[in-house]
Amino acid sequence: MNNVFVYCEIEEGQVADVSLELLTKGRKLADDLKCELEAIVIGHELKGVEKQVMPFGVDKVWIADDKRLYPYTTLPHTSILVKLFEEEKPQIALMGATSIGRDLGPRVSSALHSGLTADCTSLVIGDHEDKKNKKEYKDLLYQIRPAFGGNIVATIINPDCRPQMATVREGVMKKEIVSDAYKGKVKNIDVEKYVKPEDFVIKVIERHMEKSKVNIKNAGIIVAGGYGVGSKENFALLTELAEVIGGEVGASRAAVDAGFASHERQIGQTGVTVRPKLYIACGISGQIQHTAGMEESAMVIAINTDKNAPINAFADYVITGDIATVLPKMIKQYKEN
Ligand code: FAD
To answer: Where in the numbering of this chain does the Electron transfer flavoprotein alpha/beta-subunit N-terminal domain appear (predicted)?
Structure first.
C-alpha cells in the first residue's frame, strides 16, 4: 500500500530508457519515503521483462501481457492503470513525458481526480505548512518544472489527492542499476478483469517506424551550433569537426528555426536533454532554454565572438573568436593528431 509506481514504456520488447531513468528516481523516492517501488509493464511478449527492470531496485513488477496491448492504444492502458491505482493506492505515480506519457497521464489522473504535473525536470520529497488552513503536510512530492518559457522554476505540490502524478522529461534523470541480483516479486495482471472489451475499439493494423539516424541523446561528444554559425552551409564545418572527433551535431532552437539544422538535433527545454563527456558550443549565446538541455555536460568548450556570452559561465574553456576561423584550425589540429 502507498508505494511509488512507475509506468514502464515498451518498444519492441525493450523497456524505454526514460522508464529506467524513472525507476532510478523512483527507487530514491521510495527510500526517502520508506516504502516500496513498483513497476507496471503493459504490452505483448513480455516474457522475462522483469529482468530488465528489477536491477533498478524494483520490489514488485506488474505485467499485463496480451497481444491487444501492443502497440500502445489509449483506452486499454488507461483502464489498467486506473483500476490498478484504485486498488493499490500509490502515493506517487510517474511516467515519461513522451508521446505515450503525455496521452496516458492526463487521462489516468483525470479518472482518479488526482492532478498531474507535466514535464518535470526534478522530483524531491519535502514537507509543507499550509499557514492559511493551519495544516502541516509531511513527505509530499515536490514536482519541479520550468514555467513561463523557462524564466522561472515552479515547484508544484498536491497535498490532498493521491496518487501524486508527474510526467518527467527524457534524459533529465540518470539511470543507475542498484544491483543485478535485486529480486522483486512478479504479479500478472488479468487483462480480462481490468480492460472492458469496448476499450479495444482501436486496432493498429500496420506501423511504419521512422528510424532516426540522429542519436544526440546518447552521444559522448556533441558539437552544437547556434544562430551565430550563420548558415546551413557553415554547419558543414561542425559536421566535419564532429566526424573527426567521433561526435554528433546538435543545435540551438534559433539555429533550427533558421533552417540550419533539423529539429531532431535541437537541444534544450523544447528539444533533447543531453549529458555528453564533451560539449562544444559554437555561436550559441547560452540562453536558459538552451542550457537547461546541456548544463550537465562533463566538459564544455564555448566558441563565441562575444567574450561576455552567457554560455561562457557554463564553459570549462572559452575560445573568443569567429567560428569560421576557429573551427578549421580545430579540424586541422585533430586531423593531424
Ligand atoms: P543567439 O541568442 O542569437 O546567439 C548567437 C550567438 O552567436 C551570440 O552569442 C553571438 O555572439 C554568437 N556569434 C555570432 N556570430 C558568431 C560567429 N561568427 N562566431 C562565433 N560566435 C558568433 N532554445 C534552445 O536552444 N533550445 C530550446 O529547447 C529552446 N526552447 C525554448 C522554449 C521557449 C518556450 C522559448 C521562449 C525559447 C526557447 N528557446 C530554446 C530559445 C532561446 O530562448 C534562445 O532564443 C535560443 O537558445 C538562442 O539561440 P542561439 O544561442 O543559437 O542564438
So the answer is: 4-204
